[in-house]
Design goal:
Strand content: over 45%
Structural class: mainly beta
Shape: globular
Number of helices: 0
Helix content: under 10%
Largest sheet: 7 strands, mixed
Order of helices and strands: EEEEEEEEEEE
Distance between the termini: 39 Å
Radius of gyration: 13 Å
């Protein structure tokens, strides 16, 4: 199973920015749909953004225009640039991989490999 390791989380002020990274244990970015999700206590895991093998991206309405997903296949790294962060963005953020060239939405059940998560805390 693919191993994924996120980094880049931490505390940030309201309106600030962070860039999350996710490194894969093997070369997968040309064969997998990759996604970013987040979770807060008591709520279901929320899909935020996905990117397919061609670099096509999709976003949840809650982050559209503020977050950007990208990848560097040579570095086996997935990124999530987060701008204009708000306190409601506070959550544990996860990257995930689905064994599919095409991304069929942001359904957690489609993603079989998950990182351990990185905490993002936005203070007002």
């Amino acid at each position: 199973q693919v191993q994924l390791v996120e980094s880049g989380g931490g505390p940030v002020q309201d309106g600030g920015s962070l860039k999350l990274s996710c490194v894969a244990s093997e070369y997968i970015y040309e064969d997998y749909c990759m996604g970013w999700f987040r979770e807060t206590p008591g709520k279901e895991r929320e899909g935020l953004a996905s990117i397919n093998y061609e670099g096509d991206t999709t976003y949840a309405d809650s982050v559209k225009g503020r977050f950007a997903i990208s990848k560097d296949s040579a570095k086996r790294t997935l990124y999530l640039q987060m701008n204009n962060l708000k306190p409601e963005d506070t959550a544990t953020y996860y990257c995930a991989a689905a064994p599919s060239l095409i991304c069929y939405g942001l359904h957690t059940d489609d993603f079989l490999s998950w990182g351990q998560g990185t905490q993002v805390t936005v203070s007002s």
